[in-house]
Description:
Elements: E1 3-7, H1 12-28, E2 31-39, H2 45-53, H3 59-85, E3 91-98, H4 100-111, E4 115-119, H5 126-131, H6 134-141, E5 145-149
Parallel strand pairs: 1-2, 1-4, 2-3, 4-5
Helix pairs in contact: 4-6
Amino acid sequence: MSKILVAIDGSEPAWKALDLAIEIARNRQAGLLILHVIPYEPIAEGLRAFATVEHVPYEEEEALFHYARSLGDNLTRDAEKSARRAGLTAVEGRTAEGRPADQILALAAAEQVDMIVLGSRGRSDARALFLGSVSHQVTNQATCTCVTVK
């Protein structure tokens, strides 16, 4: 095993996933890739046109996105520091934008990771039921070993 990807979102299960990924990476002398995904989907053209006609400002949405990006970067840096304090030297943090499951799977494939570790919040709401949770989507579609932490 040479590279482990851990996805973090700031939740308690994600911090537990980070701890487990650090432990596995240390025991296996593997590199650790830490990813935070900012959920983002572009505004549909019809909605954008409606907002223009109705004079709805985009500034608030842009400000929220930049704030989320800043929080994600800080979260990733904190996770990197934790991994380095635990003795890992091959640590890299990244922040991506998009659908979390898609971004996790894309990075795992591009970096040819051996394992993905991610937290599960155990949601059972309607959205998770119909769309599937991020951990469920990643586990079902990844070509490498996946570990889900609760």
